Amino acid sequence: MDISELDDKAQSKLTFQLSQILENWHLEDLEQLKLLGLDGLIKPRHLHLYRRSNQSFDFDEQLAKRTKMILGINDSLDTTFPTNKEYGAIWLRRSVKKFKHKTPLELMLSGDTGMMRVWHFLDCTQGWKN
Questions:
Q1: Domain extents in the chain
Q2: For residue 65, what is the enclosing H or E element?
Q3: Do residues 120 and 126 touch, judged by C-beta distance below 8 A?
């Protein structure tokens, strides 16, 4: 999926989907913006406009990359914890020995490399090279 080629309606739907995922993970507004790479660009108090589909994110290359990772992590969490969707949000806040006892959320908030590490941990197929 090439996010840059989506029409306005599809971008609005994707914005709503991202907002729902981040809400389901029980992230604070500042955490959501940092995870999306939008901290400093959007004020936390304006996130409600995006959650209600009144406005869609401006999907530049960086946001498109992070969107792909967030969607991948969410799918992997759904696969890892199929019977309890809440446990994915709990897991994100628990320390993991493989991550030197940091939480997956800490790694994800540290930037693209941290997000990729979490995604590769959850979905080993993401780490495969052609």
A1: 3-127
A2: helix 61-80
A3: yes
